[in-house]
């Protein structure tokens, strides 16, 4: 088997942005039940107000 230099090396492939493992917590979208309840109440009140205006 010949060592061809036409393609990227193993190190180049492993260091590409799309080939990296995600960093834990970087895109953390979790929230607590209390936070969810707050948002739900705010959205619910906004919907009730808009229904009463019609």
From TrEMBL:
<protein>
    <submittedName>
        <fullName>Uncharacterized protein</fullName>
    </submittedName>
</protein>
<feature type="compositionally biased region" description="Acidic residues">
    <location>
        <begin position="27"/>
        <end position="37"/>
    </location>
</feature>
<feature type="compositionally biased region" description="Polar residues">
    <location>
        <begin position="1"/>
        <end position="18"/>
    </location>
</feature>
<feature type="region of interest" description="Disordered">
    <location>
        <begin position="1"/>
        <end position="54"/>
    </location>
</feature>
């Amino acid at each position: 088997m010949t060592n061809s230099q036409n393609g990227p090396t193993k190190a180049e492939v492993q260091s590409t942005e799309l080939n990296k493992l995600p960093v834990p917590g970087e895109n953390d979208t979790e929230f607590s039940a209390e936070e969810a309840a707050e948002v739900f109440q705010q959205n619910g009140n906004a919907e009730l107000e808009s229904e009463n205006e019609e």
